[in-house]
């Protein structure tokens, strides 16, 4: 049996469809473009001549390992009820682990003038005499609004036994709450990476020295 619809009903459906389509187009046009952020290098105190003399000439910063919850493009903000939220329209300009490695190497390069500091997978024709590693479990803004960096920092000399490796827990919290803008969070987290860089130099300095004959053979 054929069904016939009143013309007013047909016009209403057509109008409704146009409104819905217009809503979709409007939402697409009004979407905010994503802004990409990078961790800026942080200046810090230059290591003393005694510390610099004790460190290997070349140091490699291995790509930091991060937990799955941090392995995302966006900036992480923890809200109430232990909920993770991604900051709208904001993302890292490269994978977070790689960016952290580059930031650490840049910070250490400024603090250790005359030494060769490079990140893992960089094309550098030298062999590292020591390696720095960072494992991160938190790199975010917490529920109170502070920036938080938590993880483990470790170091070892090339060719040294595992028993001579050194590691320390790192837990840095920004002195003041972070502002509401994503750029504020990125800036403060970069400052925290600068603090970790200072700790990294002390950790490298604490490594046992290789025997003289082993140091000579490694050159």
From TrEMBL:
Residue ranges of domain ABC-type transport auxiliary lipoprotein component in the record: 37-199
The protein's matches in InterPro entries, at most eight in alphabetical order, are given as: ABC_trans_aux
SUPFAM superfamilies assigned to the protein according to its UniProt record, in alphabetical order: XCC0632-like (SSF159594)
Q: Please state what the protein is called.
A: Membrane integrity-associated transporter subunit PqiC
């Amino acid at each position: 049996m054929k069904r016939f619809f009143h013309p007013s009903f047909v016009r209403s459906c057509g109008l409704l469809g146009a409104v819905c389509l217009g809503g979709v187009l409007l939402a697409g046009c009004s979407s905010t473009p994503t802004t990409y952020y990078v961790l800026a290098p942080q200046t810090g105190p230059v290591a003393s001549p005694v510390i610099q003399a004790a460190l290997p000439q070349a140091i490699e910063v291995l790509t930091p390992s991060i937990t799955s919850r941090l392995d995302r493009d966006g900036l992480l903000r923890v809200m109430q009820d232990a909920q993770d939220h991604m900051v709208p329209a904001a993302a890292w300009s490269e994978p977070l682990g790689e960016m952290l490695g580059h930031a650490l190497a840049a910070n250490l390069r400024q603090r250790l003038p005359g030494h060769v500091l490079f990140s893992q997978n960089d094309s550098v024709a030298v062999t590292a005499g020591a390696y720095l590693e960072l494992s991160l479990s938190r790199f975010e803004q917490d529920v109170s609004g502070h920036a938080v960096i938590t993880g483990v920092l470790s170091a070892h000399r090339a060719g040294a036994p595992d028993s001579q490796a050194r590691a320390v827990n790192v837990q840095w919290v920004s002195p003041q709450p972070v502002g509401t803008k994503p750029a504020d969070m990125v800036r403060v987290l970069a400052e925290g990476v600068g603090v970790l860089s200072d700790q990294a130099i002390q950790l490298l300095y604490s490594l046992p020295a290789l025997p003289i004959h082993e140091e000579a053979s490694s050159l």
